Automatic annotation (TrEMBL):
Name of protein: Response regulator transcription factor
PTM annotation (4-aspartylphosphate): residues: D62
Organism domain of life: Bacteria
Gene3D superfamilies: 3.40.50.2300
InterPro entries listed in its UniProt record: CheY-like_superfamily (IPR011006), NreC/VraR/RcsB-like_REC (IPR058245), Sig_transdc_resp-reg_receiver (IPR001789), Tscrpt_reg_LuxR_C (IPR000792), WalR-like (IPR039420)
Domain Response regulatory: 11-127
Pfam assignment, any one: GerE
Keywords assigned: DNA-binding, Phosphoprotein, Transcription, Transcription regulation
Originating species: Streptomyces lannensis
CDD domains reported in the protein's UniProt record: LuxR_C_like, REC_NarL-like
Residue stretches spanning the membrane: none
Domain HTH luxR-type: from-to ranges: 155-220
Amino acid sequence: MTEEEGGRPVRVVVADDQTVVREGIVMLLGLLPGIEVVGAAGDGEEAVKLVAELSPDVVLMDLRMPRCDGVEATRRIRSEHPGTQVVVLTTYADDESLFPALKAGARGYLTKDAGGDEIVRAVRSVLSGDAGLSPSIQRRLLERLSEPERQTAAPAEPPDGLTARETEVLVLIADGLTNQEIARRLHVSTATVKTHINNLFAKTGLKDRAGAVRYAYANGLVRPPSR
């Protein structure tokens, strides 16, 4: 990788709550030309503090960490220290991880099976103003953009305190999808889908999927197909 103007290497902070993983990433980065690891954090709160103290060029950010997760840490860093870019480096590539991280301001997103060359490319890309996304993440974004829009009319506030994800699961139930099909559509596990269904049933007092379909139509979450 080419060093920044003036010969200065790219200054990086690594944030990951697993000590072995964090130390491994630091060791890997130490072998890459043009990169200098200036700090390592065990959670998002510590990452925000290190950015304030060290003003790194890039943070390699894990997502699921205690005290302050990677999404919130990314949001704070991009708000308070806009000169620092964030590249997510995580085990998870599901929609519930990917899209919140990008909305929070992450410019790159890699999974932890990425090699050194891929990390270097992502770091170089975000510093030049481009997105540093792994090929699998790029494919997921394209798939999401190409998915046909459903006939939905969700109210400004979902009924009965449903979360956005619970509402989405409810709409897919109304579309006739099985738990397995919903899991594939949302890129989550079937167990996660079941958890969302149990939560939305508890909030709405619903007993079965037929009731969920009626509820979705009654609350304007889906529209009957046009004839």
